Amino acid sequence: MTKAARTKAALLEAAEQAARARGHDGFSYADLSARVGIQKASIHYHFKSKDMLLTALMRSYRERIEAEYKRFDAAPTGGARLSQFLDMHRDALNGAETVCLCVSLAMGRDGLAKETRREIQIFRDLTLSWLRGVFELGARDGTIGGITDLGVEGPAALAIAEGAQVSARAEGDMARFEAATASLRKRIKPL
């Protein structure tokens, strides 16, 4: 990896950490400059604007989560995959100090560029499609109980996971996430 590629990766990592903790408007290029150890003007070499940075950040995040979903697909049951999905959302909280990037950016969506909002929508479509497959498998193998409408299960599960993150983060209490996702977890059955 070239020095420029390493610097770009470090900038994306620093921006993600900041956005997940403080939102997209909660950090500046000056913050990234201090965190990565480069001149503020040098950041513009990699990302001409903060909008371009946020779009690249969301695209990178989507690619990483898509790889996670593929890894989750190695689990043999729908219930196991749903459990991993919920665990991923719990882990993204980092002890109620952060939320996942999509939740963070979506909460301030009106202040985002069209391209960034498009990346968020692509991410959400990917997630909903993947979740539909999880619930289809769970219905076939019997490891997710109470499935009545495959068209609503994925959107409901995503809303529960994201809402649970917001609740836990707002109150600084991981127990809020566990309480909010408990009814969904109870539907997961062993094979």
Question: Which properties best describe this structure?
Answer:
mainly alpha, 191 residues
Q: Mind sketching the topology for me?
A:
Layout: H1 3-22, H2 29-36, H3 40-46, H4 50-72, H5 78-91, H6 101-107, H7 114-141, H8 150-171, H9 174-186
Helix pairs in contact: 1-2, 1-4, 1-6, 4-7, 5-7, 5-9, 7-8, 8-9
Low-confidence stretches: none
Number of helices: 9
Strand content: under 5%
Give the helix level as a range of percent.
over 70%
What string gives the helices and strands in order?
HHHHHHHHH
* Coarse shape: elongated
The separation of the N and C termini measures 44 Å
Number of strands: 0
Structural class: mainly alpha
Mean pLDDT: 96
Describe the structure.
This protein is mainly alpha-helical and 191 residues long. The protein is 74% helix and 0% strand. It contains nine helices and no strands. Helix 1 (3-22) crosses helix 2, helix 5 runs antiparallel to helix 9 and helix 8 runs antiparallel to helix 9. The longest helix has 28 residues, at 114-141.
